[in-house]
Amino acid sequence: SRQRLIGLAGQKKATNPFLKIIES
């Protein structure tokens, strides 16, 4: 589920700036 992935990215966004690119 992409929604779940976005949720995980939101939590790890502070730790992993790379996820911010994926979230975009």
From TrEMBL:
Name the UniProt record assigns to this protein: Phage terminase small subunit P27 family
Organism (species): Salmonella enterica I
